[in-house]
């Protein structure tokens, strides 16, 4: 049985010393970084398991797109859903809904 994303992430990073390799800052002032725990590249694992989205706008690395495509083809994680919604699309829709309420 497949592990839930939060459970897998806790197993990978919980209680461990993390190594962050910062490679930029997004328009909101947040750090963009590669995350390693015990030598494991966390983004790779989460993308391959279908538990993360690759946001190409901030990180165009082709291997990230390949890992996501692999998970999508094998219908792992969020790709098991017929029409998964990207988090940025979900947030935009929620903001739109709130702005329409009076």
TrEMBL record:
Xref: InterPro entries: SNase_OB-fold_sf (IPR035437), Staphylococal_nuclease_OB-fold (IPR016071)
Keywords annotated in UniProt: Endonuclease, Hydrolase, Nuclease
KW Hydrolase (keyword) present: yes
UniProt GO cellular component terms: cytoplasm
Domain TNase-like residues, every copy: 2-81
GO MF annotation: an example: hydrolase activity
Protein name: TNase-like domain-containing protein
């Amino acid at each position: 049985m497949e592990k839930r994303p939060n459970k897998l992430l806790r197993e990978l990073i919980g209680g461990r010393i993390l190594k962050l390799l910062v490679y930029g800052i997004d328009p909101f002032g947040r750090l963009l970084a590669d995350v390693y725990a015990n030598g494991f590249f966390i983004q790779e694992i989460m993308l391959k398991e279908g538990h993360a989205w690759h946001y190409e706008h901030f990180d165009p690395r082709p291997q990230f797109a390949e890992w996501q495509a692999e998970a999508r083809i094998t219908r792992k994680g969020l790709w098991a859903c017929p029409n998964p919604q990207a988090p940025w699309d979900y947030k935009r829709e929620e903001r739109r809904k709130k702005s329409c309420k009076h």
